[in-house]
Amino acid sequence: MSELSLLWNAESVAVIGATEREGALGRKPVAYLQRYGYPGRILPINPKGGTILGYQAYPSVLEAPGPIDLAFIVVSADRVPAAVDDCVAAGIKVAIIASSGFAETGDEGAALQAETVARARAGGLRLIGPNCIGAVGFGNKVMATFSPLFSAEAVVSLEPGGLGIVSQSGALGFGAASLGIERGQRPGWVITTGNDADVSALEVLAELASEPSCTGLLGYLENVPDVSALRSLANSGKPVALLKSGRSEEGGRAAASHTGALATDDRVLDAALRQFGIVRAGDIDELLDAGDAFVSPRRPAGPRVAIVTTSGGSGILAADDVVAQGLELTPLKDETRAALSEIIPSFGSADNPVDITAAVLSDPSLFDRSLEVIAADETVDMIIGCFCVMTDGDVDKAVRALAKVAEKSGKPVLVSRTGADFLAPNARATLREAGLPDYPSPARAVRAAAALWQVSKPRASEVLAGLGIETPAAELTEPELKALLASAGLSVPVGRVVGSASEAKAVVDEVGGTAVFKAVVPGLVHKTDVGAVKVGVSSADAAAAFDELSAFGGAVLVEELVGEGVELIIGVHTSDLGPVLTLGLGGIFTEALDDATSRLLPLAPGDALAMVGELRGKALLDGARGRAAADVPSLVRTLETVAALVSGWEGGFELDLNPVRVLSSGTKVLDAAHVIAKEA
Amino acid sequence: MSELSLLWNAESVAVIGATEREGALGRKPVAYLQRYGYPGRILPINPKGGTILGYQAYPSVLEAPGPIDLAFIVVSADRVPAAVDDCVAAGIKVAIIASSGFAETGDEGAALQAETVARARAGGLRLIGPNCIGAVGFGNKVMATFSPLFSAEAVVSLEPGGLGIVSQSGALGFGAASLGIERGQRPGWVITTGNDADVSALEVLAELASEPSCTGLLGYLENVPDVSALRSLANSGKPVALLKSGRSEEGGRAAASHTGALATDDRVLDAALRQFGIVRAGDIDELLDAGDAFVSPRRPAGPRVAIVTTSGGSGILAADDVVAQGLELTPLKDETRAALSEIIPSFGSADNPVDITAAVLSDPSLFDRSLEVIAADETVDMIIGCFCVMTDGDVDKAVRALAKVAEKSGKPVLVSRTGADFLAPNARATLREAGLPDYPSPARAVRAAAALWQVSKPRASEVLAGLGIETPAAELTEPELKALLASAGLSVPVGRVVGSASEAKAVVDEVGGTAVFKAVVPGLVHKTDVGAVKVGVSSADAAAAFDELSAFGGAVLVEELVGEGVELIIGVHTSDLGPVLTLGLGGIFTEALDDATSRLLPLAPGDALAMVGELRGKALLDGARGRAAADVPSLVRTLETVAALVSGWEGGFELDLNPVRVLSSGTKVLDAAHVIAKEA
Fold first, then answer.
1. What is the ipTM of this complex?
2. pTM reported for the whole predicted model
3. What is the crossing angle of helices A170-183 and A284-295, to 10°?
4. Are A421 and A519 found together in one domain?
């Protein structure tokens, strides 16, 4: 058991800065522990001693009876380091620093924060915060927080569920939790981590994922510094949805002309979450909607959705959304449609979306039979039931039928119920009880279904093997790099560096009478722009071209002229989360259309093909207007080879293969550059 | 006053098919009129006469005391035509046919529907439906519906508001209305139109827009057949949001290789709504969220948003969303930021998003002062306040301050409040009362702000003048069409049709020694694919090229070789909603990237420039990698000239200018085709 689990297993909590003063932040944790019946020892710490809300107060944790499992620190920032020292001395393993006044205030605060963390780390104390609102472990009623959520007149039910909520923002974390509770969600944990000075929100998420009773995780993050925590979170097998702010910086950073720069942090995070099977929520609603979907243990085996509706309009909306969310509207098997048309009245629809009409809902046996036929169809991975105005009686009938097929088929069933709760006061609870997540609109039900598929998609556990090629010791020139690429098995144009006009002419003749000439000058990146590349040089013009390019002061590379194809860019750069492979549409379109997709390395089987499929311009590869289709398998091999090539490289670097031309047979790297990142 | 307003002004309602039988649909309208205290005359119609729920029943509307303002028909489909005849004979002007069994069931039902509509139209009777759930006019308690919404134990408040809800889907319409009512919205009208056989949902929306007490409209539509109703709706000045299903057919239809085909119906609708200042909602939530935003009379003068938050996390999320929604995060004026940094503590932020921190919220005067400074900044068009867990006390303070600046500045203020209602049971009502729409997440508040800007954007009332050029009598060949384009003032390549090899050579010399040769063969569209175009023909090759292209059996066109530029496609085609102008990225990228934007014609000033701005690939026009920037003003003139050229054209046609090359100076139409649509 990691010490972090003391956040929810603590059998004693010290509140450093406790006070009885009404309205003071230091009163609240003591009051909440008391109000919510914390079964462990409550230890208010206050220099004045005495009693606080009836509990014996101690001047310091050192004077309080041990062992102390968890400290909640809510003194002013300048007094925090001393409190941390005391915690270390008292043998405390975890402390939450709720106090503000640290890195969020500027340099001075950042120094204080660094100092505080250093002292804690030296003493074996893990810190949550500072600048957070604390944590609540519902199971053991560990109320280490001053969130106003627990001071409201309405008592919050602490009956624990399997959902863990972790948020860097304290207000958003408890705010989202309160909205979830209002829907009937039962969180088991709400933990806010503020400045993430020592323990990060991701680390807490990973720790919660290892709790057997945790069935799903929701997180709000402002930064994702730690790919290993992300990986271990993903590998826990627990469904996770994250809301990450700071998306809009993406635009501002996507400026430079190479794919490395295109793959900004936010794009990398998107790629990583997609790879790791983690849902990226776009909004609080979407985060909580995913949480509702996670509660049921049923998972889809594929992305194919059947829609069953009593309202034609809802069914059409849901069908639109299925397409928009990248799920599939299964056409259903012929026999399914035949069977349905026996059951459903003529004014309904036996095609997907299946409109059983309101008439059928009033006859539970017909509804049962329709659903049974649909659930038995093996082209159906998930069922979404779409209803509108429903009374409690309607809900009861629908729930019985839906729960039965969900249970029997093991397929997830989600519900869209566009109608006010006052029409059916028990509907939410009934649906929740039956393991049927419900949403107020088709769009939200479908988005939740997409989240469920995202966390259920099979992920390759193996990764593609590396080539064992070592990190280049220095930046490579184009010919050096191309030689390395060729040795790794990539295809580059035939040609070589020449030392004289006559040798240049000889190479032109060797490669077919017309060639490309390039000046090889370290540091000269945009060669075309300065006239350092000459395309289509004939044997007769070879000498003049050699002389002209020699004037750039470097070597001259002469290469075959490669035939027409689709130009792409392949890049690898090192990001905060590790090396990232990016594939983008080539030429000036890369910048203009920003059409690129990324993966954290290493690649798993299938990743490279999926990347090709994610390009908006992928139809270019299919051939258009009489052009031959491009050799996609060779492109996939190229991507996998690039990934394997750099798999052992260390330190920061950029590798830009630009352009890479996909021919009707084969893929060639026409130009390539290698940059070693300067230490920041 | 149009007869349609009898739907909500009726002083007498006949229910044809009324019965006292429990559970029967024919009982509900009578029961609802009674339960909700309809002040007019209730006239149950039943062949058996007698009394129904205490009201005298009549065998037919002809025997009931007149005048009858509105009939609600709920008999089986086969008996509907006779009921309609009776209504006509009784001088009734509007009838709602709730009965199913018409066009939605197949050909037979469609014939019955057509027959019913024909009889009604001949008799001067307007029909709503069939296959709908009826209508409710809240102001006069006209409960012409059998929606279960009104049979629930909870009595729905009929206190009328200014919001009109019109839906083709009955279940979705009343379902959405119930969700709105649950939030505290007060609709004035809920009208469902089913099959839209006679009166369309759009026509009802337009009629409601003319009601002085209507302050906003929400609609769910499955088809939009009538651009004039859409225009009159848009010109009413009332804010409108529409949810239109059937988006996913877009993909299936966007297949053909010309821009006309790219502009599918859904894309055209998108374009029309954008032009007309109507919000297109993506979901029920979004529709209702727009409705909440419409309630306040304050409108933004521009798209610049200031975010004020007590929770850093919410502020960052809102900033992301402002960018994603196409609004602007104003940087605020220097003096505003200076003034704010005097007010806000050091751990807050005086930049936008302005983080006043929870500390400031507890001091209302500081909050007041911050807001006043922000609202006074003329770079701020709208303010979004983002809060989390709030108690009623917090809400009261925030509302006082927010309402004050909204009132004083006239700027819209929207609220994101991420916290459960049980924490602040009065919050919704307090905020609504103060004219501050509130939403559970930053994303939804920002999306509502974007909706508010969409309905407030200035729209040009004038349209660009036409050229008075008549519809071509027959399909034009490329040279004929280019002559027409040139006469309209568009720029086409210098050149002409030649009749001999020597004439061809003469033109090559005239245009500078190198030319483009094209075979002119009616019906030959993809000329490049079959070798009917030769680019870069020299004077020496002219004769051979002439001979080769003559072999296609038509004339030969010789034209100057036009310099490099950005290739686009400009097309006009006639759609359900009228002629549509489309601008797309050219070449094979049109298909592969589907980068195109459309406008219904006629254009207003500013439309053409806006279209250019909407291309994803617009950066191509800015010049990249040393290319010269393209002449955007000449492209805008070209678009406006094309629109003016076809302004008087009648009948169905397609005009495809493909490619259009935008040079560093000027824009030339390199190829053009004209097709007259066959009658369907």
1. 0.89
2. 0.90
3. 50
4. no
